[in-house]
C-alpha cells in the first residue's frame, strides 16, 4: 500500500496525518476483531464490513477532540 523507495517515510507520515487516531493500528488491535468474529456470540453477524482503520473512513468527524 505504501510501497518502497526513498519517499516511503513521507507517504507513511501523510497517511498517519490523515488518520483521526494519528497512528497505525497494532497487530493485536486487528487480531482482536478477528477473535471477536470467531466467537459464538458473533454467529448472527452476516454481510457486513468492519473497518479497522483508526477512523480513516469516518473522516475528521472521528478525530478525538476535534
Automatic annotation (TrEMBL):
Pfam families according to UniProt: adh_short_C2
Cited SUPFAM superfamilies: NAD(P)-binding Rossmann-fold domains (SSF51735)
InterPro entries: NAD(P)-bd_dom_sf, SDR_fam
Protein name: Possible 3(Or 17)-beta-hydroxysteroid dehydrogenase
